[in-house]
Design the sequence.
């Protein structure tokens, strides 16, 4: 793994996949087709892309029961405990509607309301990601969203992975449809005969799913378009090289474009981690992916001191940040930009991926400068509440009218004045 | 104004202005040019579009002092009082970072951090909108954003409107640049020699500004792309027709594509409001704009009863909602979708535009189903904090590793296990 001297500007940014013009056209056509032909279009695309002919998209209760039968009890118990942890962490984020009152009778406030409905996309393919189901569904459920829909592409037998179905049931999903790709996004954005539209779509997917989410954005809300995974580890010579290397590789195995970075003032640690990465890499099942990721996007930055290392971390604004230093907690106040911050050697990043409770859907590609982990606020919206009394309007009406006239908006001024005049 | 029977589906949605292909190309070229040539490009475009040759874009202190000299003291006092109200309402939204502790040593939490920097766009043209400056800047300031930049196109004399400069100073802006259009968005998104880049851009603008914001989104954050203004008034026969009509017109005067709707179970009120609208319209300075808006997008929906009227309102998800009924406050719990809710006859919509305190930047075009007024959360981000103790990892490590292996991510499992083994 390459050890580099820090340059003036470091960045985790990789170009965002915006798709080819052809891919964009395909997605636009699929969406238009689903809007026009509904279920018939879904059936056609499912046959074409997933190679299965479905009479109904809805997952019946029987298939969920079968899924439980296929999973080890111990695994179901782990899913349940993880779900409890995630639920508990997100419940602590709930805020009440609030109001403030003034003696003149004015009442102002914010009414907090859950979204009516949310659709969660779960990718298909060879691997099943039940953790992704938990992380997307549970916050919506805790936020009070009444209708949560899950969509995911079926295999050639017309089934979804058992682990995904179990996670969906444990998270509290009651509507699951076997449909994937851009056609699934179109279906839940605009509705078909058998699938009602939702207000927001979350969850990861391939380039076609990402393009479709961009396309329907505005008509419905979407979560972020996530980039490849990232980790930055801020460590001093109290850290163990083998543990640091293992954590770097846990991101590198996700994707050839994943990015794993160590930032340290210790040249000794840097050299030891570099060696450890090579050794551990050779033993990984996904070593091809991880090797490309480390070669193309891995780096060890050696800094003059810890303060410079923290500067680097803030410039990177990483999705995941581990702090493995003496008195790591003392550094928390200096860290301005990171999606999730893991402090201390026992807080290995996978702890947060699966189990601890905070969300694993995190801002990537430097967007932790201005974005947050998926959270309760993503599934609730606020409405301002304004109640003016007669006295409040009498006291302030003339000022409001003067402000409106200053902006050339006479009808605004008159709307206030007609009330003052009517009361005379 | 047309009185219509309610159909099954009502909607305020108007097509979103996405710009022509030519406009999109112009904007892309301007952005590329500013990224490459910096201030020189800004100077060229400012000469071309604003017809003024500027040696420096920064507004000097002297021009701000001159602006105060040009404004009536009474107006400055109103701006100051409005700013105080806006500040006070937004301060109430502040949340602390929080943590939760467990007996096994686990600490989980959310660290709330203000964005480093925000840029506010203020449109130019014939009218000056100081209220827009207050509404965009003050929440950022209250949220703790250290650097707030304002950009606005200069007039042919190279000046900004006095009211805008006064509002900017009262709101606490310390950097103001005379640059507008797509070139201004490019400058604050990517930086030039004289203007440093920001992390988020808010504020309204023309189609070129809107397209530029879409284009830079992802590299920086943006607020919503606002559509034309909307009001829905839910009223029964306790409402005065002249007041209802005046409020409908206060939105209609904004824009020919603004949308003003009355929803009422009272045919009597419907007929009286329809007449009043015609009469008041004739006397408005901006009657041409308001007439087109009322003709094209105005409607009075007469419903069977109040419950049906509330259903209609929830379907519309209006930007502004006035509730002028007996016991209006009792209906608040039934209103699920609205940007700002004004209750009672003294809570005329302009009260919220200028003075009461809640933000006037609100979700339009039905997006109140899933979006919120501009608020403190828009200028802060959260980072998850995860601290696992030795005991926490010992108790849960095997479960985390099993979950990771279930998803085929062996390096994740090993990152946890290496710690358990090292401690043996």
Sequence:
């Amino acid at each position: 793994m390459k050890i580099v001297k820090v340059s003036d500007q470091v960045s985790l940014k990789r170009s965002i996949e915006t798709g080819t013009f052809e891919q964009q056209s395909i997605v636009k056509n699929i969406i238009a087709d689903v809007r026009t032909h509904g279920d018939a279009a879904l059936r056609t695309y499912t046959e074409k892309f997933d190679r299965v002919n479905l009479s109904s998209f809805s997952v019946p209760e029987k298939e969920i029961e079968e899924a439980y039968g296929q999973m080890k009890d111990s695994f179901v118990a782990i899913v349940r405990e993880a779900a409890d942890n995630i639920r508990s962490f997100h419940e602590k984020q709930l805020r009440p509607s609030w109001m403030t009152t003034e003696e003149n009778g004015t009442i102002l406030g914010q009414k907090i309301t859950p979204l009516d409905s949310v659709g969660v996309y779960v990718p298909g393919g060879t691997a099943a990601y039940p953790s992704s189901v938990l992380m997307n569904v549970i916050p919506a459920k805790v936020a009070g969203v009444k209708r949560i829909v899950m969509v995911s592409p079926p295999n050639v037998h017309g089934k979804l992975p058992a682990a995904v179905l179990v996670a969906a049931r444990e998270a509290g999903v009651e509507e699951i449809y076997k449909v994937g790709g851009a056609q699934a996004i179109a279906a839940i954005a605009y509705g078909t005969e058998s699938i009602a539209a939702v207000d927001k779509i979350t969850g990861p997917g391939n380039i076609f799913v990402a393009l479709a989410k961009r396309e329907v954005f505005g008509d419905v809300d979407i979560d972020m378009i996530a980039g490849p995974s990232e980790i930055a580890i801020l460590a001093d010579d109290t850290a163990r090289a083998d543990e640091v290397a293992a954590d770097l590789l846990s991101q590198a195995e996700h994707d050839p474009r994943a990015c794993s970075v160590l930032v340290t003032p210790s040249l000794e640690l840097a050299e030891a981690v570099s060696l450890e990465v090579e050794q551990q890499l050779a033993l990984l099942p996904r070593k091809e992916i991880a090797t490309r990721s480390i070669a193309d996007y891995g780096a060890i930055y050696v800094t003059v001191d810890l303060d410079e290392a923290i500067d680097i971390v803030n410039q990177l604004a990483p999705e995941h940040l581990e702090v493995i230093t003496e008195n790591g907690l003392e550094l928390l106040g200096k860290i301005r930009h990171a999606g999730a911050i893991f402090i201390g050697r026992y807080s290995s990043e996978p702890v947060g991926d699966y189990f601890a409770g905070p969300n694993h859907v995190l801002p990537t590609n430097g967007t932790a400068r201005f974005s947050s982990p998926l959270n309760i606020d993503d599934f609730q919206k606020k409405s301002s509440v304004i109640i003016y009394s007669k006295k409040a309007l009498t006291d302030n009406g003339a000022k409001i009218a003067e402000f409106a006239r200053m902006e050339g908006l006479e009808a605004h001024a008159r709307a206030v004045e007609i009330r003052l005049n009517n009361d005379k």
In short: Chain A touches chain B through 120 residues (CB under 8 Å). Chain A has a mean pLDDT of 94. The CA atoms of residues 78 and 355 of chain A lie 9 Å apart. The radius of gyration of chain A is 26 Å.
